[in-house]
Amino acid sequence: MALYPRGALRELVKTSWLDADDQDQAVEQLRRALAAYVPEDLRRPGIEAVQRPSTTSVPRIAWAQSVPVAGMRTWEDVRLAEKEMALFDLARLADTPGETPPEETLALFREHGLSARACAGCGAPVTDRHPHWPGVLVSMENEFGPVCTCSRLGDESPQRVGHVLDAAQARPAGKLTGKEQKVRCQNCDMRVTEQHPNWPGVWTEAGGYCRPNCAVPGSGADDATEYDLVDCVYPHVPVGADSPAAAAITAAKKTGYFFQPRLPRWAQ
User: Which residue of 161, 180, 199, 267 could cross-link 193, Cys pair, CB 3.0 to 4.6 Å?
Assistant: First the structure.
């Protein structure tokens, strides 16, 4: 049996792995960090942090415990044995308290040689080594991605800005001048620009919420599948252009996990 980290803890595992210079070494560092994450009073000889097979490049790290099958004759015997497993005592640890990992969790990961970076604004685990967003701070959350959820300019403004690692880097959202070059995104047909002051060099919606993310895959997967969703947020790709995400977007369309949340007309 395996118990996977969920929510912000799972996102921290993924961003820490993407950030690593040596990703093979990072797998072992993550395994040790998750083992140390378990309080001493919940540690049992039969429970260990292990790497499980993954369907993508992102490794799955889980807490696991074996069920001895000697003497068992039916599946009911197995189910009864599972109820007594100490592994389920860790269920409350699988989610970090709140929507962001606390500082002590980040510190624990760093003690094991991992970057464990979080946005100074919203607290989400972030990486600037996402395969589709090179050089852009991105969270693995499947809606906002490169957008800091705490950077709204009050309730009246839909403008948002990017993640920052240092609160001193935070700045008010900029506005378009109307003179920027605008082209269509080949996937969502939104007008996009590379000249938005909040997202220099990144194709961003030229109106409305000015979000740089084009589309998100559907949610509702189980723990194991959610663990694999490194392609959680896609960038805009202008007509006639290419990007590191182009092939992944094509594959996502074929599997039905690609949709564009359309803005109301007044916001475009």
Answer: 180
